[in-house]
Amino acid sequence: MARALLAHGDVVLVRPLHPGDTAEVLALHTRLTPQDTHFRFFGTPSGLAKLAAQIAAEAGPGHYAVGCYRRGALVGVANYEVLDDSADAEVALVVDGTVRTQGVATLLMEHLVSHARKTGLKRFLAEVLAENANVLHVFKDLGLRFEASIGGPERDVVMILEDDPAYVEAVLERDSVADAASLAHLFRPSSIAVIGAGRRPGSVGNAVLANLVAAGFPGPVEVVNPHADEILGVPSAPSVAALSRTPELAVICLPAPAAVAAVEECGKRGVRAVVIISSGLTGTGAGERVHAAVREYGLRLVGPNCLGVVSTDPACPYDLTFLATPAKPGNIGVVTQSGGVGIALAESLGDLGLGVSTLVSTGDKYDVSGNDLLMWWAADRRTELAVLYLESFGNPRKFGRLARRLARTRPVLAVRSGGGDTAQRAAASHTAAAATPAVTRDALFEQAGVIAVDTVAELVDVIAGLSWQLLPGGPRVAVVSNAGGAGVLAADACEREGLVMAELSQDTRDRLAKLLPAEAAVHNPVDTTAAVRAEVFADALRAVLDDDGVDAVIAATVPTAVGDPGTSLAAVLPPEYKTVFAVRPGQRARVAPLVPGPGVTACYDDPAAAAAVLARLVRYEQWLNRPETDGSLTPLEDPDALRAFAAEREGWLSPADAVELLRLADVPVVETHYVEAGDSMDAAAADLGSPVVLKADAEGLLHKTAGGGVLLNVRGADRIVEAFRVLRSRFGAALRGVTVQPMAEPGRELLVGVRSDAVFGPLVVFGLGGVDTDLIADHAARLAPLTGTDADLLLDGLRSSKALWASDLDRAAVRELLLKVSRLAELVPELAELDLNPVRAGSKGCVALDVRARLQRVAAEDPFLRRLRD
User: Fold this and answer.
1) Residue 669 to residue 660: CA distance in whole angstroms
2) What's 255's domain CATH number?
3) Domain with 111 in it: what CATH number?
4) What beta strand segments (E) does 205-307 contain?
5) Which element (helix H / strand E) includes 444?
């Protein structure tokens, strides 16, 4: 069962049908128009009652049906019937004529597709009259690979159900359109009611009403308060039912028990969106009643336990918060779970003269979430910068797609939260130890192009930089200062942040030498000396900006008795082609506009802050310009065999099964033999070449080499048998068995692994392996599925990457291995952990020498299926 949105923004319920729905299914078919009946049945139908019962039958291996309910009434049905135990199913649709253009058929088809994929179906088939253009368009526009016959009165339609990025993008586009239409009730309401506004100044309800009145909302406003005829000049009614009109948006400021009743009254009255300021609902029966009301009445809801909502749209401005100071209008969209963060951010932005387009405090997040705001902002051209403070992710894979789409057109910023690593202490594999919650979250942000910060103060620093300067054209930075110490500090900060200190050209150095005193430093960082006048400093800054080898400049200045170079910067700025940040050590504000009013650039109190912002902007610019290289591989010979193998196993795989899993996934692994602890090694030893390595498979043995579980360069049958006895003696009852492999060629030992998260999906980890794994802890991580670009970024994401690939290693082979492991993680969602350590990489190829794998049953979820939070 799922709440979902139609194209026009109406909330509907989509759920599987069961025999109890037979009467409604029959009624839906009975009220079809003659034309719709002809299209559905190719003539006059017979046996409708029997057909309705078949459609509403319990779901099974050969049958599945879903219905769409709008305000409790069944308005659409879609079903499929599997053909002769094959991977094909025939699909059929019926939609009530009253909702024909609202996307019911498409929504139902998406739910059928999602379920069919989980059961292993490969194709949907349909027979459609050629004149039935509407249904043909529904099938064709789904985003699936589509084929249709040509000629004759009927069309044989085939839809391919394989995973396809184009289909995901089509679903997200429909989701965004529907979500924006739905949120218009929240952000562009025609009328508002404040429920629970009191006459007492200082109360939350009174403050919300006062802010709404002050904001100048142009539509009708009413109050619900049984003890007043008017409050702050706004007419009051004793109940929601008694309001003079049905408000499109209501805000509730009541104690928890009364708030529940108010939500239910709003639903009955036909209110479309509700903001619940009230706290004390979550975790109680009252909270469950609110959830039930949202489902029953198709409400969009912000909160509960939230600061409220602000919209500064000139056509429909309103402030439904208890902010002490009204948020300034501007171009920054903000969504935050924390009301306190929302207050702090609104005040900080206001101090800088910056403002918001929308500010939404989601609180306990019953419905409207960060993903909703990402979709709203994508359609809202007033929002030029998006800011998120999210303490949890309901659907991070969808978040990643939505954030990536938005970040292509405007910056998306997020405050890191909820990334503690405590739960990783007892990790049972090297990959799990590296794949901490913080690593997983940061991989999500990085791949989506989100600019991540750790504090609200850093957030404001970056917002100021983005608001008042261009994105830098590259990482090459020059520092110009009239105080040598400040310049050195700025240069050090730039290098710590991974920026490149630009090499000034000879022409630039000659210009600087003519401008500046003899004792000045004309190499980067440029020290003009404290004795230069403001206009000379400005000329020096111009000379550096004219250098083609400089992408950005940090200008650090201090006032002296000779003059204040900081006063000259405004005359130089804004450069139309390069980024410049000012630094004024000792200024009172952490960041401020360089001049009063809208600043031409951001001025920071510390060089480190300016360098940190510049580095984040450089990385965002690089992400924008990064081409998505191909990550395609030769298709697997038998992916169904891989899925079937995984479906039959659970828990940590035996070494033999783990190797077989890799073989089925076409992941290169060394030839491996496994002997149970209680068996004899004699027969196997006689067949093995030499030299070989023996590895213990023992309970609790993670670090085989350090734990004495590896015996190398064992030669000859007798010595192999003796080595087996040594391991059996060393580990006793803990020994499950011994793996025997030929000694691999010399090379660099690497780690490649997967850790799957129930919420985020599979994370691919790459790093130095073998004995270096924990000693050096040099890892990089990306969320699957990996593109070719993702694989390259993993290869270049280690501290040691430059030295690693300067050696004679087969980079292409390691890249291909990463892509194959990513594909394995996608094809086998049961893969909870995979540890290939070490992977031996040489000048020609790479191969996994040791593998640990754990499979875990998972409830298959489709992260891109259109549905609202429940």
Assistant:
1) 9
2) 3.40.50.720
3) 3.40.630.30
4) 221-224, 230-231, 234-237, 249-252, 273-276, 300-302
5) helix 437-448
Angle formed at CA 389 by CA 462 and CA 441, multiple of 5 degrees = 90
Non-local CB neighbours of 261 within 8 Å, separated by 6+ positions: none
- What token pair was written down for 79? 């079903």
In this structure, the strands spanning 692-698 and 221-224 are: unpaired
Q: What is the pLDDT of residues 438-472, one digit of tens each?
A: 889 999 999 999 999 999 999 999 999 999 999 99
Q: What share of the chain is helix, strand, coil (3-state, %, to 5)?
A: 35, 25, 40
For 662, the 3-state DSSP assignment is: helix
**Residue 316, in any domain of the structure:** no
Same structural domain for residues 108 and 7?
yes
CB 449 within 8 A of CB 620: yes
Query: What's 845's DSSP letter?
Result: -
- CATH number at 721 reads 3.30.1490.20
In the listed set 721, 743, 765, which residue is the last one of a domain according to the structure? Answer: 743
pLDDT above 90: percentage of residues in the chain: 80
Whether residue 676 sits in one domain with residue 601 = no
**Cβ neighbours, 10 Å, residue 676:** 13
CA 798 to chain centroid: 23
Q: Is the pLDDT of residue 776 over 90?
A: no
Structural domains counted in the chain: 6
pTM to 2 decimal places: 0.91
Task: Report pLDDT for 431.
Answer: 67
CA angle 10, 12, 18 (to 5 degrees): 165
Query: What are the start-end ranges of the H helices in 119-164?
Result: 133-140
Do 209 and 116 fall within a single domain? no
pLDDT, tens only, 95-106: 999 998 899 999
Sign of the torsion formed by the C-alpha atoms of 632, 634, 640 and 646? negative
CB 815 within 8 A of CB 841: no
Phi, psi of 699 (to 5 degrees): -55, 125
Taking only the tens place, the pLDDT of each residue in 622-642 is: 999 998 887 789 899 899 899
Residue 455: CATH number of its domain: 3.40.50.261
One-character DSSP codes across 155-199: EEEEEE-S--HHHHHHHHHHHHHHHHHHHHHHHS-S-EEEET--S
* 167 within some domain: no
Tell me whether residue 237 is in a domain: yes
327 bridge partner residues: none
Q: Where among 162, 197, 232 does a domain terminate?
A: 162
Q: Are residues 473 and 599 in the same domain?
A: yes
Expressed as residue numbers, the domain containing 300 is: 172-306
The verdict on 754 and 733 lying in the same domain is no
Q: Are residues 662 and 711 in the same domain?
A: no
Are residue 383 and residue 413 in the same domain, yes or no?
yes
313 occurs within a structural domain: no
Q: How many Å apart are CA 150 and CA 102, to the nearest integer?
A: 28
**Alpha helices of 469-606 — where are they, by DSSP H?**
484-496, 506-515, 534-545, 569-572
In this structure, are 846 and 798 located in the same domain? yes
Residues 5-20 pLDDT 10s: 999 999 999 999 999 9
In whole angstroms, what is the distance from residue 537 CA to residue 534 CA?
5
* Distance (Å, whole) CA 60 – CA 506: 77
Cβ–Cβ under 8 Å, residues 66 and 112: yes
